[in-house]
Amino acid sequence: MSNFAKPENALKRAEELINVGQKQDALQSLHDLITSKRYRAWQKTHEKIMFKYIELCVDMRRGRFAKDGLIQYRIICQQVNVSSLEEVIKHFMDLSTKKAEAARSQAQALEEALDVDDLEADNRPEDLMLSYVSGEKGKDRSDRELVTPWFKFLWETYRTVLEILRNNSKLMALYADTAHRAFQFCKQYKRTTEFRRLCEIIRNHLANLNKYRDQRDRPDLSAPESLQFYLDTRFEQLKIATELELWQEAFRSVEDIYGLTCMVKKMPKTSWMAVYYAKLTEIFWISTSHLYHAYAWFKLFQLQKSFNKNLNQKDLQLIASSVLLAAMSVPPYDHTRRASHLELEHEKERNLRMSNLIGFNLDTKIEGRDMLSRSSLLSDLISKGVMTYVTQEVKDLYHLLEHEFLPLDLASKVQPLLAKISKVGGKISSASSVPEVQLSQYVPALEKLATLRLLQQVSQVYQTMSIESLAKMVPFFSFPAVEKLSVDAVKHDFVAMKVDHMKGAVIFSTLGLESDGLRSHLSLFAESLNKSRSMIHPSERKISKLGEMLPSLAEVIDKEHKRLLARKSVIEKRKEEQERHLLEREREEESKRLKIQKITEEAEQRRLASEIEQRRNQRILREIEERELEEAQALLQEAEKRGRKKGKKTVMDGEKVTKQSLMELAHNEQLRERQEMEKRLQKLGKTMDYLERAKREEAAPLIEAAFQRRLAEEKVLHEHEQQQEIELSRQRHDGDLKEKNRLLRILDNKIQFQNKVVESREAEYERLRKERHERIEQILQARKEERESKRKMLFYLSIEEEKLKKLKEEEEARKREVAERRKREEAEHRAKMDEIAEKQRRREQEVEEKRRSELLARTSEVPVTSRPVETPIAPEVAPVVPAVAAPAPGKYVPKFRRAEAQAPPPEPDRWGSGRQDDRAPPPSGGDRWRGGGSQRQPWTSSRNPPRGG
């Protein structure tokens, strides 16, 4: 593991390793830095390091390294700068996606390049063998080599990111975005298996989130933002599941949405609910659950009618027609009529579960069997006014199949209506959740319903009917299909009939009393007569009353409509205001609750940690003491047992028993027992040796006799088997000769056929060889031209490189010459400056000497008075230079004294060094005084001449 003083050094080191091609070492160095506990304080450099680390992991497809690094980086920046983690994860997903797309593009380009007539011409022998053995195409191999590894890495990237972000409340948006990108990946590349795993992963994340609610930074599902993210993810999952036609996974997604809403006790948005019911209609239609499909359509119709203000009359009419046809497509009989008690309980539980899913109703007090049925659905459609929006063809079809009694003309009247309905449909622009509605999908179910109604009505009128007549009455199906429908209807007690194929007749029987059928016939006959009379002789009183009421009724309806619209707008405004106030109050309460909960959780965690630490320490001490006590007691009991067996006393009374003494005693006892055991084993070994030697001496002659007997028996057996083998060989030889003589008759035909096959194959081989030779010649010529052009290009590139190299060398030589000339000029300039400085110093020195000589000359002109001889001055007092008296006329003065008298006094030290040796008087031993009287002149020693001389 590399140790760096700063994280920047690790980044520089990684870049250096990348530049020399050692990406693995660079990745390992960055991984060691990220996982080290020394660099846990977040810095901006950590983000740069993570970007480089992620790039290396993606380039080398090291998903495990990327996951470890992201987990460590989450620990580093979770509480400091969580947005940095978000940026790193986004960069990670973008890089993985780009690499996967690049690999896919490369594979497509390779596939297009290989799209030639003959792929085997340029292939190597091993590639040809691989193609024959494996049987896969060139595209499959290219995908397996190029695309599949990157797609696996991209899928692993999505799983890693979801695993890292699953319990992070601050990055819920990124979690939802990652889930959406993973869904789009599964949709784009048709990855159904990965989609199922992804749904299971997200489902487990939510389950763990509810299971461990005391985790830190856990998303709160009661918060509106968190709920929105989770519901958005589930609805996207539902859409992709239906687009991939994974209906089982789509139904599980619906259950997830329902469970999530039950968990938070809050209804989703209207647009989401529209998508919810639209997908439910598709799921139930695919699963042939027509009843639940119709209920889902009914809820979707109510939702669109109430909340979709852009829905026009045509779209509403089309949706209402779909609702009514879906309800009519439900089989008209009850499947649970003859079911057992257990099946009824299961059906009741299933209906209750489906009612909650379809109605999004959490109330479970209503009986499922009474709530979900075909009759109750049709009555709800009539009471809720759905019949007022359906088309006229659908309305006529409903009255024919549900209220009319026309056993002979039912099919002929239903068939044109079904032909018109099959052409109705189109796109719905104003309803985004249901982009297109086609009524033709209900035609097969309506044909079955019409056939069942015809059989029911015919069974009430006829007792016997020929098969041909019944087949002519049903133009939708053949008679075997009608028979199959009748079997299911008879099974559920909807129709009572038998088919006698020997007589060619259909026999009907009654299910109930005969008076019930007659009563229905008479009532229907009375209603028909009443309608006919009213059409022939209409009532004038009713017409006049209706004419009087029509003008006022239109005004009343208009006023009532306006009043209802105004009331609806007021109610909607009040609802929006109330929801806004409730949302603000919930947010405030939630923030207060979270603060209080956080404070209490922190205090509780500190208290629990301290208590756990204390209990752990106490438990460890107690366990150590108990273990020592148990060991001492075990040793004591073992020693007492051995002492009782041998009649010895192991521990003396009054003797202090300790663990150490007992261990020594037990050790000595074990050594002694081991020695005794070794002696017994040696003695037993000798005894066993003697016994074994005696046994072998006695058994040797017996073994030899048995061996001789066996040799004789095996010799006889061998001779017998050899004789049998000879007989079998002779028989097989005779049979083979007979078979050969029998087959000699067709030898000529065989030779002719063989020659014919060989000649055809030789001709085919010769043709293929010539074609292959021509292709190879063409390929060789093309490769030769390609090599020639490549050789010319390389020659041209080498010449250009030499020119560039020469120019570069000339430029470097020119730069070196300029640098050397500059160095020489600088050296000459420095020499000149040194010479000028030396001249200036000498000039200053000459000026200084000249000034000193002038000062000495001035001081020699001043008269000096004689002094009496005094006691030498103390060393603390600065010495005074003795003044030289002017020479008296006629008296001899030495030449050096005359020069000394004329020289000016020395100037004090300019630099303040405090040196006054030149002006101080010489010591007493080195002076000589000449002359008498009161005037004395010092004699300066030649070893210290005056400075001015």
From TrEMBL:
Region span, Disordered: 810-949
Basic and acidic residues biased stretches: 810-855, 907-920
An example Gene Ontology molecular-function term: mRNA binding
Stretches assigned to coiled coil: 573-694
Cell compartment(s), UniProt: Cytoplasm
Stretches assigned to the PCI domain: 316-513
Bias kind Low complexity: ranges: 868-889
Superkingdom of the organism of origin: Eukaryota
GO cellular-component term (any): eukaryotic 48S preinitiation complex
One Gene Ontology biological process: translation reinitiation
Segments of skewed composition (Polar residues): 935-949
Assigned keywords, A-Z: Coiled coil, Cytoplasm, Initiation factor, Protein biosynthesis, RNA-binding
The keyword Coiled coil belongs to this UniProt entry's keyword annotation: yes
One Pfam assignment: PCI
Description of how the protein assembles with itself and partners: Component of the eukaryotic translation initiation factor 3 (eIF-3) complex.
Function: RNA-binding component of the eukaryotic translation initiation factor 3 (eIF-3) complex, which is involved in protein synthesis of a specialized repertoire of mRNAs and, together with other initiation factors, stimulates binding of mRNA and methionyl-tRNAi to the 40S ribosome. The eIF-3 complex specifically targets and initiates translation of a subset of mRNAs involved in cell proliferation.
Similarity-based family: Belongs to the eIF-3 subunit A family.
Name listed for the protein in its UniProt record: Eukaryotic translation initiation factor 3 subunit A
Species of provenance: Heracleum sosnowskyi
